[in-house]
Write a sequence for this structure.
């Protein structure tokens, strides 16, 4: 099971001008249509129901990224399950990988409290940490 990362820990990476999403870290948002309500800057949207089919291509594209963080709205079911599927796919690849494969060093985490917790933490104090936030749509969730 992947361990959790706090919103504050992840926000340090997102804020850091020397860090780049997709290179230094990757946020994988596994929500479905509610991704349109807003998301963490630089997040990759892969709906949870697509994770089995897309885990391999995510690994192919982002194997060099040292930290991959998964989340859904609350990170209670979809986010942790997607992280598990991804990690199982990584583990399968590592069985046949060269010892210098960067996947050996990749950390897979789950955002504690999910996007809902992220919004609670930063909407009022640091709204730049939420891309494309739609308050009207948020209120309907």
């Amino acid at each position: 099971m992947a361990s959790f990362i706090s919103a504050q820990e992840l926000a340090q990476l997102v804020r850091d001008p020397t860090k780049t999403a997709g290179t230094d870290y990757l946020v994988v948002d596994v929500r479905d249509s509610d991704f349109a309500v807003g998301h963490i800057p630089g997040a990759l949207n892969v709906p949870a129901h697509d994770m089995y089919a897309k885990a391999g291509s995510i690994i192919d594209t982002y194997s060099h990224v040292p930290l991959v963080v998964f989340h859904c709205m609350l990170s209670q079911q979809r986010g942790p399950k997607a992280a598990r599927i991804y990690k199982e796919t990584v583990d399968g690849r590592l069985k046949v990988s060269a010892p210098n494969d960067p996947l050996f060093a990749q950390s897979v985490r789950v955002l504690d409290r999910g996007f809902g917790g992220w919004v609670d933490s930063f909407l009022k104090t640091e709204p730049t940490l939420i891309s494309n936030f739609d308050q009207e749509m948020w209120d309907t969730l």
